[in-house]
Predict the structure of tRNA pseudouridine synthase A.
Amino acid sequence: MRYFICFSYFGKHYHGWQKQPNAITVQEVLEDALSKILGKTIDVMGAGRTDAGVHAKQMYAHFDFTEIEDTHNLVFRLNAFLPKDIAVENVFQVADEAHARFDAVSRTYEYWIVQKKNPFYAQQAYLVKYPLAIDKMNEAAKLLLDCKDFECFSKSNTDVNTFLCDIKEAHWEYVNDVLVFKITADRFLRNMVRAIVGTLLEVGLGKMDLGTVKAILKSKDRRNAGASAPAKGLYLTKVLYPQNIVKTHG
Amino acid sequence: MRYFICFSYFGKHYHGWQKQPNAITVQEVLEDALSKILGKTIDVMGAGRTDAGVHAKQMYAHFDFTEIEDTHNLVFRLNAFLPKDIAVENVFQVADEAHARFDAVSRTYEYWIVQKKNPFYAQQAYLVKYPLAIDKMNEAAKLLLDCKDFECFSKSNTDVNTFLCDIKEAHWEYVNDVLVFKITADRFLRNMVRAIVGTLLEVGLGKMDLGTVKAILKSKDRRNAGASAPAKGLYLTKVLYPQNIVKTHG
């Protein structure tokens, strides 16, 4: 039977989601916890990959196992076993063909910026001390909604077949002391959100105008865009699935 | 001339505010930064003491120095010099007799509780998984407003002359995912807020009734009250001074 697991993590101490040799990743720690508790080697397939240091407030993965009688108890045991920086929200059975990566309809990311030194956001937001023209940054964000090909914001050594993404929302707003960039799309390319944020920050700092952003999007060349914003400000906040893949949600 | 410095800190890596041998404290780190930048040994007097691991969102101290021409620049240099977990909000001249500790009219603390595992509050809130009767906890909090003598919540080996405190507000409320206890008084005894929180949690868990809380307050004996809640959930959030002690506020 197939199960979805919904969880969150504080990314600082992990080399991202995806398992790799010689570095601790969230996938490895999660698989280890599931395998120990269920008494069988469990492989999980994540909804996507997050880079080293990136956080997730809501992330999904799927795994296969025989019938789990008490998913509530499994969640309890997982949370007791996992370190403080990974928390499981729930585990629920899905249709056998449901796929955490391919069935995800959209992903939402947030990028958090603070404008003055704040001890409580030192590991959770990027400090930009200079004044930012938020209106201009929102105008530039709107340009993303009309764009389809995002090769200009993609890592050059990538293995994807297409650079097409459908951006559904992209805007900046203050939430208390934090300037939050929220962006939703059907899919994202590797490093894409941080490259977008780095570019929009150049606009906010007055170093780049909207015409230049348009030219960057057209150029399809990563070298033209702004520097990638630091990982610690980035959060995967929502992964959306169609209603019908969920069998029982407990 | 006398100056007030307003600052905040994330308490995890400090053995509290007050200087002591063989342990790093916020006072020591702040004095070191001021002394290095101003080129003279600077002693600061804090508005109060916070224990090891306790955070401060707003804390004040005073120090003496010759005229500082550009306090804005001093703040900038202090923030560049200080570690990430201490931030200076501002520095401003006050009347020569102004005193950060004795002139403070009130202090406000908050205690943060989360009710399920959350990687983003692992170092910043206390995790209480069991259901809490918030109404009962608020009824018990109200009893504090009528009380004057708080010896029952004071460390036994204390050097204070009086246990009298005037509690101005004390209540629990949810702020998004966090259950926040807010308490304001003219002064607090050592460990008092954490002892109060520990006691009110017993009420919320159904282990103690309001009659017992009344009896504890009357008893003036710390052994009767609940266990002290962990330091990581506690924040000093506001220190209030009379308007007239501020000469220039830069």
About this structure: The interface with chain B takes residues 8-10, 55, 57, 79, 84-88, 116-120, 122, 124 of chain A (CB under 8 Å). Chain A has a mean pLDDT of 93. The first helix of chain A runs from residue 26 to 38. The beta strands of chain A are 2-9, 45-46, 55-64, 86-94, 106-114, 126-127, 167-175, 178-185, 234-240.
